[in-house]
Amino acid sequence: MWSFLQTCRALLAPLFIPNEQTSLLKKYGPWALITGSTDGIGKAYAFELAKRGINIVLVSRNEERLKNTAKEIESEYFVKTKIVVADFSQGFKAVELVKKAVGLLPINILVNNVGKQYEYPMYLSEVPEKELLDIININVGAVTMMCRAFIDDMKKRGRGAIVNVSSGSELQPLPLMTVYAATKAYIKSFTAALRYEYGSTGLTVQHLAPMFVNTKMNAFSARLRTSTFFVPDAREYAAYAVATLGKVDESSGYWTHGIQTFFTKFPPSWIRMYIGAHLNLSFRRDYFKQKNSTKNNGTIKGEDRIKSI
Known about the structure:
Helix content is 51%, strand content 12%. By secondary structure, the chain is an alpha/beta fold. It has a 7-stranded parallel sheet, with helices on both faces. The chain is globular, with a radius of gyration of 19 Å. One of its GO terms (molecular function) is oxidoreductase activity. This is Inactive hydroxysteroid dehydrogenase-like protein 1.
């Protein structure tokens, strides 16, 4: 019953809690920093915040994409932007670079969106060692250290929001994406504990766990590159996700994903793991089918696997 009530609140709060009570600019302040912000959910989230009059610090590893995204935002919403080139696979070095580039700029909303996914569903021994380390450094290290880098300043100001973007893969162990799913389970646990530590200081610490979104990160299956009722595009997802900020602490970020999450939790973990493994095997077949049938685009580029979801 409690799970049902939580799900209902997460689904309905963005629709029925008046926006004027949670004006993000008024509630948190004029600057937001978003990692993985040049594509997918990260880029769409940046646009949604800019639409609300918030200035944006864009962080990604591709300078050209950063400049293009900054121009798009400034021309459409007339807010200020700042770009920071950082590769979070470099660990703490990247976090230090971001902190130095931001300087005294007050970051009122921190969106930890950057993440790395497998190229396609793989068994552990198939995943290159460097890729495994990158997944851990980006998905675990970046979230942890970026929170630490900015949370004290938010605490001193007595206001601020941290949004940690996880994944529905956190809901169970997930064969063929074993390490990726494990890093997302870390984000869920870390964010809940962080909220307990700092919730009484006036900070919002939100956990987002989307299901599948139509982004380049899911390019291993054509089925996930077509927007449907349960697979929204990034703009649809971000519009709803931003509307949840300041209203609910935990959310899938999209209403149909909330329904999926609710029903996913019904079976025991071992059944969810079995279903997830079966689904990943089908996506693995999709990948090899695409690879064999497409001469020029047989391999998903690494740049596309650095999440802007």
